[in-house]
Amino acid sequence: MIFSSVSFLYYFLPAVIILYFAVPKRAKNLVLLIASLFFYFVGEPIYVLLMIGSSLSGYLHGLWIGAAKNKRLPVASSVIVGIGLLGFFKYSDFFISNINSLVGSDIGLLKLALPIGISFYTFQILSYTFDVGRGRADVQKNFVDFAAYVALFPQLIAGPIVRYTDIERELKTRTHSFENFGLGVRRFVLGLGKKVLIANTLAELGQTFLYSDEKTVLFCWLAAIAYTLQIYFDFSGYSDMAIGLGRMFGFRFPENFDHPFVSKSITEFWRRWHMTLGSWFRDYVYIPLGGNRVSKLKWVRNIFVVWFLTGFWHGAEWNFIVWGLLFGVLLLLEKLFLAKLLDRLPRFVRHIYVMFIIVISFVIFDASGMSQVITKLSDLFGISGLAFSNAITIYQLKNYAFVILIGAIGSTPLMPWLVEKLRDRFGKVLNVIEPVFLAALLLLVTGYLVDGSFNPFLYFRF
Q1: What is the rounded distance in angstroms from the CA atom of residue 35 to the CA atom of residue 30?
Q2: How far apart are CA 334 and CA 411, in angstroms?
Q3: Residue 202 has what pLDDT?
Q4: Which of 79, 186, 68, 90 is nearest to 128 (CA)?
């Protein structure tokens, strides 16, 4: 089940909302837990047991850490169990394939289906045990409350990565109001619109490009730009929906995106893109390794460890590792000298530099292995001998120019800024228009979904 589906919007979500607000306060977390397990069960019937087992492991490790004088052993145990399960299900075939290639063996691949959301809920459980071990979070002694935190359906599938300390207090006591519920609905519907109307439309262009026998250099660039916008609206739209759903149930989830495409450096981009993942690696990997308060050699090591892991977290292929290390190199260069050079350039030049790198990086990210990376980059730069353009490319450019333009404008802070200006000047009128607009947007999205539009979620891969 996904958020952008008729079954979720008109059956599952209304039923959960009615039940949630009908039960007394002490039963609300239990309702959320049962609903979340059912939500996961619909898509992953067998792997719901893995989620329950992971939740139980995190819960028991938390109790062990709280009772232990030397907390290193139980914290290490929680890491071994959590990363071990993640590694087994997500990376087994990657390691087997590479061993076979290196030594010429013929070990059979396990071909395990990747449990949806395992990368996210594993990191959430580890944030809990790390913070309990550091004394930054209290031990959660109620298993239902802890399991509800791990399995919470709004952010279960693709984040944002919600740390236990983000909602520790709200698990025990949270307030509900019509205002918060309305704000949550607003955020959810806007995220749904971003996902269905923009990301899905751009995905259709990607599918057309994938199966086209008439590829050109210009078509390759068109597809690369469309994919870059697609993954932003897909992932940020999901994050908006998750944050909105959390607000409806009384939770304040952290923001995950802050208009990353307006960045003027790669460093700034990663302060704005997938912020919960970046802060997780900063606080639980980079700083414990010593951060930048070590020798220069160790500092360089720390940067590359973090970005190797960032790439590898996204997928069990070498192209993800290369993708992560590419950013590690660029960030290191910016910290050493490139940032000073960039500061001397006009803003639009710095912006072009960032967007060029980002588009290229997502070409690498979207590939299926390194051989396809080489093919895609060769096509992109005309090395493979593709023609620059043809009639089909021009047709597709005209066909998708409007949605790409809307996506480019929508990825900037322009629209939020304009809405706030209008709210300051025409607040009462906007208060009347906004619900009508949101209702119309929801109806439009529903029409697209009923029509059977292409409706993938990119981060389900990870």
Answers
A1: 8
A2: 24
A3: 95
A4: 79
Two structure tokens written together for 21: 């607000």
What are the average pLDDT values for consecutive 10-residue runs of the chain, which has 462 residues?
90 96 95 95 90 96 95 96 96 95 91 90 96 95 96 86 94 92 96 95 93 93 97 95 96 95 96 96 96 94 97 94 97 94 94 97 94 95 93 95 95 92 84 91 92 64 56
Whole-angstrom Cα distance, residue 449 to residue 438? 16
In Å, what is the CA distance from 107 to each residue of 80, 84, 376?
A: 24, 20, 30
From 222, 197, 225, 198, select the one nearest 212 (Cα to Cα): 222
pLDDT at 459: 58
Q: CA nearest 302: which of 313, 290, 314, 311?
A: 290
Q: From the CB of residue 199, how many other CB atoms can be counted at a distance below 10 Å?
A: 28
User: In sequence order, which residues have a C-beta less than 8 Å from that of residue 4 and are 6 or more positions away?
Assistant: 192, 195, 196, 200, 445, 449, 455, 457
What is the residue type of 24? P
CB 138 within 8 A of CB 62: no
Cis amide linkage into residue 416, ω under 30° from 0: no
CA distance 319 to 334: 23
Count the neighbouring beta carbons within 10 Å of the beta carbon of residue 432. Answer: 10
233 in Cβ contact with 198 (< 8 Å):
yes
pLDDT of residue 423: 86
176, 274, 314, 351: the catalytic one is 314
Confirm whether 314 is a catalytic residue.
Answer: yes
Give, in order, the Cα–Cα distances in Å from 322 to each of 291, 295, 303, 326, 369: 22, 25, 14, 6, 10
Structure tokens, 398: 């005209």
Nearest to 226 by CA among 444, 408, 433, 356: 408
